[in-house]
Amino acid sequence: MTTVAVLVAVFSLAIAYLAFRRANAVERRLAETQDRLQDLSAQMAQAAEELREGLASLRLELRQRAGELAFTPDMTIAEALNVHPRVKDVLASFHLGGCSHCAVSDVDTIEGACQSYGIDQKALMQALNQLIAPQSGSSSGPIKVASMKLEL
Question: pLDDT band at 102, cuts 50/70/90?
């Protein structure tokens, strides 16, 4: 009887050991799968950002080809920021955003921000639209924000 009890105990220990090893293997595979999912999630987020930037670039190109202004007073700040990477610099040169006492919301329109902060809307619109306007005597592209400050 003692022999049978010892054999059952040894057999139970062997099964417990195998179950423990199998659980560790499953846990390791789960951790690897979670790491892969995080990598894929990061890649998808990067791809989505690249697609948003590409879409904004295509919209800008379509507007330029159609001869339309890329920026309008009824655009939200968020929409304007998606049109050109230098918009943030232009807005900062007009003291819109970037500091605690003149923070502007992304949902505000350009017109509303100008009214709220006493900014010359015409000058801001001209500066924003110059970002995408071809420059005379040079290749098209964004102009320097510092030169815009002098022109205003």
Answer: low
Rounded to whole angstroms, the Cα distance separating 60 from 10 reads 75
- Residue 76 — φ and ψ, nearest 5°? -80, 160
Spell out the alpha helix ranges (H) of the chain.
2-66, 77-83, 87-93, 110-117, 121-130, 145-151
Question: pLDDT of 3-51, one tens digit each?
Answer: 999 999 999 999 999 999 999 999 999 999 999 999 999 999 999 989 9
In a shared domain, residues 32 and 89 = no
Question: What total of structural domains would you count in the chain?
Answer: 2
Task: Give the mean pLDDT of the chain.
Answer: 81
Q: 33-62 burial, b if ≥16 CB within 10 A, otherwise e?
A: eeeeeeeeeeeeeeeeeeeeeeebeeebee
Please give the residue range of the domain that contains residue 28: 1-68
